[in-house]
Amino acid sequence: MNVKFPLGQALAVDREKFAELVTKNIEENPFIEVIKEEVTQISDDEITIIATGPLTSSGLEDEIKRLTGQDKLFFYDAAAPIVTKESVDMSKAFTADRYGKGESDYINCPMTKAEYEAFYNELINAERVELHDFEKGGLFEGCMPIEEMARRGSQTLTYGPLKPVGFGKLGDVYAVVQLRQDNSEGTLYNMVGFQTNLKFGEQKRVFSMIPALQKAEFVKYGVMHRNTFINSPELLDATYNLKGTNVFFAGQISGVEGYVESISSGLVASLNAISLYNNERKDEEPAGNKLEQTIMAGNSIIFDKQTMIGALADYISNCHENFQPMNANFGIFGEEKRFKSKQEKYEFLANRALDIISSYIN
Question: What is the pLDDT of residue 55?
Answer without folding.
Answer: 79
